[in-house]
Amino acid sequence: MPLECCMILMDCSEYMRNGDYVPNRLDAQKDATNWLVDVQINSHAESTVGISAGSNLLMSPTRDVAKILSSIHTSTFAPVTGDIPSAVQVASLALKHRQNKNGSQRIILFVGSPLDHLDDKLLQKAGKQLKKNNIAIDVVVLGQADTNTPKCQILVDAANGRLEDTGERTCHVVTVPTGTLPSDILASSPIVTGGGGGAFAAAAGSGGGQGSNFDDFGGMDPNMDPELAMALRVSMEEERARQERVSAAAAANAGDSAGADEANNETANDPPPMDAEEALLQQALAMSMNENEPTNIMEDAKPAAAAEDQMDVDDDAEMQIALQMSAQQQDEAGASGTAAATGSNEFQDPAFVQELLGSMPGVDPNDPQIQEALRKAAAEKRKGDEDQANQKDQE
Fold first, then answer.
1. Residue 139 and residue 352: Cα distance in Å, rounded?
2. How far is 364 from 37, CA to CA, in rounded Å?
3. Which intervals hold domain VWFA (predicted)?
4. Which whole number is the average pLDDT over 2-7?
5. Cα separation of 141 and 11, whole Å?
6. Cα 209 vs. chain centroid, distance in angstroms?
7. Is the dihedral of CA 194, 196, 202, 203 positive or negative?
8. Mean pLDDT over residues 52-59, rounded?
């Protein structure tokens, strides 16, 4: 697609209030301008568009669609009739000072005001100046077709050149019938479809009328609602970016899954770990193959046997000590029993008890109660002796 810098000249005179186009000439012109801007911007990565309202420059050639659309929609009616020679001169200067000097230059002029007051020589002079500067011009006539079309044809003929490869003219006049949308007429006109249409022809393609790529706007015609069309286009671009991110993430996940499968295969090929019995078997085989192991076992057994003998000696000594302690405890118990028995016999002797009581201070052995207790004790002793003697006799 060829690179092209385009200036669109809008007619904002009071005549554009007429309602012979829906909804009026000015709004129909804005709709057509929006469509042309879209086609031009999408035709080439470096193509630019500028906007001018008569001889008033609204926007220098740029690719900023937001600024272009803002300048189009903020344009309003002007109290004076547009001067075509002056407007063409301003547009020529804007194209001369464009940033990218490469590519072709083009002016699209909308005319809705009567041009019967303009001198034909001025129109011819303006056209020749455009041809000298290698600038093509297309004129779109909105209303007053009987008087404006011949005037515009003079300008176009003076500026017209021919394509070297096809011999077709590079400048055209398109008259839009009343009651129709200018964008519909432009879509099938030589301005867009051919005849030296430059970037417009390349972007729109041949035939079919609606040459713009509506796929970028969700299949809708951007001319019907430019703002909605731009919003749809931004939304579709965001959706494409999201789908690309999802695809990239899916590819990354697929790569990670492949790596995990490979790792699992490597793990499956590794020998299985030995269980406890097999490990013990391996250890027993290694011990049986060691020739020096018996000697080592005997050498290790000697200190163990010595330790066991020492433990036996210690146990015997502890046993002897325990027996001696047990015998001593038995002797002490026997002695204590004998002493107890001796003491018991002595307390049963009345003479011993009386002597013991007499030796105690504050005790009167002749006390009747003590004497009675002693008599009872002696009687019990005699009775016990008799019982013991009788038992021995019976035996």
1. 168
2. 153
3. 7-112
4. 90
5. 10
6. 45
7. negative
8. 90
Closest CA to 27 of 123, 112, 86, 93: 112
Give the Cβ contact number of residue 112 at 10 Å.
Answer: 29
Could you give the angle at which helices 120-132 and 84-96 cross, rounded to 10 degrees?
Answer: 10
Q: Are 384 and 378 in contact (CB under 8 A)?
A: no
- Per cent of the chain over pLDDT 90 is 31
pLDDT at 157: 93
The radius of gyration of the chain's CA atoms, rounded to the nearest angstrom, is: 66
Assess whether pLDDT exceeds 50 at residue 297: no
Strands 104-111 and 56-62, bridge-based pairing? unpaired
Q: Are 144 and 114 in contact (CB under 8 A)?
A: yes
- Pick from 60-69, 217-226, 356-365: least confident: 217-226
Q: Say if residues 127 and 27 touch (Cβ distance below 8 Å).
A: no
Q: How far is CA 258 from the centre of its chain?
A: 22
In DSSP notation, 80-121 reads S---HHHHHHHHHHHHHT-S---SEEEEEEEE-S--TTS-HH
Q: What six digits make up the tokens of 317?
A: 């000594």
pLDDT band at 352 (very low <50, low <70, confident <90, very high): low
| Between residues 374 and 187, the one the model is more confident about | 187
Amino acid identity, position 224 = M
Burial class (CB in 10 A: 0-12, 13-18, 19+), 151: buried
- Residue 23, preceding peptide bond in cis (omega within 30° of 0): yes
